[in-house]
Specification:
By secondary structure, the protein is mainly alpha-helical. It has a domain at 24-60. Helices cover 77% and strands 5% of the residues. It is built from two helices and two strands, in the order ββαα. β1 (2-3) and β2 form a beta hairpin. The termini are far apart. It is found in: Cell inner membrane. Its main location: membrane. Forms a complex with TatC.
Length: 77
């Protein structure tokens, strides 16, 4: 088992140290807080990416419209 590049023995050591530092009553609360923080970070990241995509699309449309306006149109005789 390899989670985030951390093997099972390392993960067990980390959990034991966390248990010793925070105690069994605080660990669920800390886990919830970390989960909420991770979720909020992912949401903010997703919103940022969506905004970048919207801005890029708007710029591309603007450039395309400008190019179409500047290009000479052929007139049929």
């Amino acid at each position: 088992m390899n989670v985030f590049g951390i093997g099972l023995p390392e993960l067990i050591v980390i959990l034991v140290v966390a248990l010793l530092i925070f105690g069994p009553k605080k660990l669920p609360e800390i886990g919830r807080s970390l989960g909420k923080t991770k979720r909020a970070f992912e949401e903010a990241s997703r919103e940022f990416q969506d905004e970048i995509k919207r801005q890029t699309a708007a710029l591309e449309e603007e450039q395309q419209a400008k190019a179409e306006a500047e290009s000479p149109r052929e007139i049929s005789p």
